[in-house]
Write the structure tokens for this entry.
Amino acid sequence: MITVPALRFLQQDSAVPTPNLDTSLVPGEFTELVSSVALQKEDFVVATMSSTVPGVIGGQFNQSFEVNADSASLQVFIPKKFVKANSGKAVLLQLRITRQKVISVAPSVIVNIDQGVIVVPPPGITWDFNDGTRQGWVPQGSYIGGVLKVISQRVVVDLTNSKAGSSHIMSIAVPVVAGRTYRCGYLAGTDLLTADGSRLRMTMNGNPIGRTSPVAPDFLLLGSGTFTAPITGTVHLGIFNEAVPNGVHSLYLDNISMTEEP
């Protein structure tokens, strides 16, 4: 058997004991479910969302498929209308993976849908990656598909075949309160002898919140930015590379922080 981390909505908050998903903050027509389980080719995945209240019309959704290539994590997309059918109620998320005829089951999780005020992150929250995981940060764009690895307590990119462009590296859903200002920061560096051209900045909901700075050898970049929340809800904190290089691409991220200002 394998250890299967629980399924979760990408945009759900961190409320305890039961997280909440505010569907009004989910862009587009689909809601994303994720798990940090590493998938292998020919794994068979069954992901289920079911209502905890009997008789909810349109509130159930099942998706099953065979994996056609190795992947560092799982992403499942549910039409948002199925999730919204449970507004004001709660859903049960379940995940089952069959590998070489052995069935492994993730812990079941209950998530409230459109209920209550989202919990505010405690002052001084820092993602230090000391546990060997991305701690909830989700790869984006050019960095999807096993590109990001946690090595020596840092999120590392180390490629020889990168394609030029611009892309978010990763993002995370964080709860905020309207009118409050948050200061965000991160450390970045590279082990290359010459810079690969990467230029990073922080974003909130895709919008820049700090200056864009190059990642240079023998220099630890301290990026930062501030953000005043226009609403109480969930927003997406991200790190963006406006100059993804062609060919060799190497950098690392560490000690990402978000602190509410007095």
The longest helix spans residues 80-84. The helical segments are 80-84.
